[in-house]
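Hello,

Our lab assistant flagged a job as stuck in the queue for most of the afternoon. It eventually completed. Since we weren't sure the result was trustworthy after the delay, we are filing this so someone can double-check. Below is the sequence as submitted and the structure that was eventually returned. Let us know if re-running is recommended.
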Amino acid sequence: MGYSADPHWSLVHDPGVLVLHAGADELFAIDDVSDGVAAEVLALWRTEVMHPERLSQEAADVFEQLKAAGIVYNLLAPRVEYALELRFAGTRDGELEAALVEALAPGIAVGGDGPADLVLFVRTDGALQDLVGDAYAMLAAPHLLLDVAFDHTICLGPLVFTGQTACLSCLVGRLSYYWGDVAAPPRPRMTGHPGLSAGLAAMVIESILLREDRSLVNRTVAYDLRAHETQSSSIYRLPTCRVCGSGERERCGSMVLPWARVR
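-- returned structure --
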């Protein structure tokens, strides 16, 4: 049975430790690895197709940790396929769509005839209310918002599981209440950078589908490319949300007066 190493990762040996890293922001160590075991694992790692059958038991245990971490994968294992659906609020952006198709990892396909595993809403030049039309209330699939209707900001989130987490209608309700639904320009500046927006969205989509990342549930993250800052904001379910709430305001502490009762 053949295995291959994820090319995004490197494996190095320090005395007593095997260090795996995908860059300075993503690394972990396997402790208490003898020099002999490390030499076995490193020799196997450097082969194009890895066959771990001849490893010692200690080296095989280390290899199992690499498999569990998803850093090596079985070449014969069937690849899980995921379907991504795109919905635009405003003008459909063909350049962004093409850039997203190119940026996504193998196994994640845009479009298709079957049900989507994830729906990506993209706001280009539409109003906030365009996100939550009549069809939105019928959407059962998990979904995510990419908002590029800005001059120098890209916003991602929330990730929505309908009926369980804050939805786009909750987001639109809060934003409209505090800021109003201001019309976007005919062509917001950020729509002129489809590769940037698509690349960022692709990384998030891959984390959601391939690694079950749920960090954008009930949350949005805005990337301000002028100030070089990010802002994370919490989104809460609205009791009055027509999609995921009760649709009625709670009447805590209220009572019906005797003479007002229907007889």
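-- support follow-up --
The delay was a queue issue, not a problem with the job. The result is valid. The longest strand covers residues 82-89. Confidence is low (pLDDT under 50) at residues 249-263.
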